[in-house]
Design a protein that fits this description.
By secondary structure, this protein is an all-beta fold. Helix content is 0%, strand content 51%. Strands 2, 4, 5, 6, 9, 10 and 11 form a 7-stranded mixed beta sheet that branches. The chain is globular, with a radius of gyration of 14 Å.
Length: 129
């Protein structure tokens, strides 16, 4: 599986962006796809996950602002980011684990980078104040 993440850019606080994670080589349908971000000098941070057909899960800091969703026909997972804040500035990457973890507990399993089989390259999101 090859993943390609794109859609980053420079925006102002309060603006929106939509990131895309496009896959080739295998369908993403039903599997777990997550977005992570890394701020320079800090550890990679989990942002959001989608698993199975409808399960979604978010880190607390983006709840109500970010939405993760997938288009199976396009084999793409999106991250819609609204009301962006300067603290959202980071390099965003998508990752896939070829498992349906929609029933997994605790949900913090999604936070663990080591469970993911494939990673895309990062796309930079810069939010100015």
């Amino acid at each position: 599986v090859q993943l390609q993440a794109f859609g980053g850019g420079l925006v102002q606080a309060g603006d929106s962006l939509r990131l895309s994670c496009s896959a080739s080589g295998r369908t993403l349908s039903g599997y777990t796809v997550s977005w992570f971000r890394r701020i320079p000098g800090k550890e990679r941070e989990f942002v959001a996950a989608t698993s199975g057909s409808t399960t979604t899960y978010y880190t607390d800091s983006v709840k109500g602002r970010f939405t993760i969703f997938r288009n199976n026909a396009e084999n793409t997972v999106y991250l819609q980011m609204n009301n962006l804040e300067p603290e959202d500035t980071a390099v965003y990457s998508c990752a896939v684990v070829m498992l349906d973890l929609s029933a997994a507990s605790p949900r913090t399993i999604f936070h663990n980078p080591s469970i993911y089989n494939y990673w895309g390259q990062g796309t930079l999101v810069t939010v100015s104040s």
